[in-house]
Amino acid sequence: MMRPRQNHGIQLESCLFEISTSHQLRWIRDLHENDIGIIDFLAPTLELVIHADFVLKISEDNPFNFVVSPEASEYPFSYEQELFIELRPLIRTSYARDTDRIREWLHPFWHPGKRVATLELFQQLNSHIYRTFRYQRRLEKGVQSPAETLEKNSGSCRDFATLFMEACRSLGLAARFVSGYMYSLEITGRMSMHGWAEIYLPGAGWIGFDPSWGILADSHYFAVAVTRHSEHAPPISGTYVGIPRVFLKTQVDLYVKRLDSEKAIPSPLEAIVD
Predict the structure, then answer these.
(1) What share of the chain has pLDDT > 70, as a percent?
(2) 66 three-state secondary structure
(3) Fewer CB within 10 Å: N-end or C-end of the chain?
(4) Residues 187-194: contacts with CB within 8 Å, 24+ apart?
(5) What is the pLDDT of residue 261?
(6) How many other CB atoms are there within 10 angstroms of residue 145's CB atom?
(7) In the chain, beta strands by DSSP E
(8) Is residue 126 within 8 Å of 214, Cβ to Cβ?
(9) How far apart are CA 106 and CA 70, in angstroms?
C-alpha cells in the first residue's frame, strides 16, 4: 500500500515499481478504494528490494474551500438515516474501554447542553493535541490506545490521529485513518510515512485533520490508504519464510521532493516520492 490515491486535486503522472527478485505483481482495489499491490514471489532470494517512484501533479487549493450543510453547522447534530447506515462502521469506536476517559478529556470543548460551531470544535481539538502533546517518533509496532496517549501526553502521528478519531466517534461522527505522504519545507532528508485523520461532515464530505501539525490536510498531503484503524494500512506487509537468524534487518528510505522548488513563485505542486 504505497501508491498514492488520486482525486480531483491529485493526478498520478507516473508510477514505477522495481522489485529485485523474480515476481508477479497484480493490483486490486479494496473496499475503501485503496490500491493494493499483491506480489507473488517466484523464487527464493537472499535480499528483497522494493523501489517505487511516483510523480504527482497537484492542484493547490484552499483547505477551507468547503461548505458544511446548515443542519450540521453547529454541534450536536445527527446524520440523516440513510447516511448514518452507510457510515455506521466508521462511527463505532475501536477502543470502547477508553470512552469515559475520552469524554472526560472532551468536556472543556463540548459537553451535553452546549452548542458550538462544528468546524470550530474540531479545529480546537486538532490544535489542542498539537499544542499540548509531545510528538514522539515511535518505532514500536502498533498504535497507542487513546487512554495511553492521554496518560503519557505524547505519541506519534498515528497515536494522535487515533485519539482524534476516537474523540470524533465518541461524539457520533464518522472518522477514518489516512496513511500517506506529506511535503513540508520544514522537513529535509529522509522521512517516514505520515498518518492523519478524516471526519465526514455533511455537505463537505471527508475533511482531513492533522493533529501532529494542528492544521487541516491541504494540497501538501498525499493519501495512500484510508482505513477504519491505523494498523490496517501498513505500506508493506507479508510473510517471511526461512531460518529466523538469517533475517538480519530492514531499511526504509523515503523522500518527498518538490520538482518546481527552484521557482520563485510556485505553480502547481509536483512531488516525487522515492
Answers:
(1) 95
(2) coil
(3) C
(4) 187/256, 189/255, 190/253, 190/254, 190/255, 191/254, 191/255, 191/256, 192/137, 192/252, 192/254, 193/224, 193/235, 193/254, 194/157, 194/221
(5) 61
(6) 18
(7) 10-19, 23-29, 35-41, 50-58, 74-75, 116-117, 134-135, 154-155, 175-182, 194-201, 205-210, 215-216, 221-227, 256-258, 269-273
(8) yes
(9) 24
Amino acid 272 reads I
Question: d(Cα 93, Cα 104) in Å, to the nearest integer?
Answer: 16
The single-letter code of the amino acid at 156 is S
Residues 6+ away with beta carbon under 8 Å from 19: 25, 39, 48, 49, 50, 51
Q: Is the previous residue joined to 202 through a cis bond, with omega within 30 degrees of 0?
A: no
φ, ψ (nearest 5 deg) of residue 20: -70, -20
Give the global pTM: 0.90
How does pLDDT run across 165-178, given as a tens digit for each residue? 999 999 999 999 99
Rounded distance between C-alpha atoms, residue 23 and residue 88, angstroms:
39
What domains, with CATH codes, occur in the chain? 10-60+235-273 (no CATH), 70-232 (3.10.620.30)
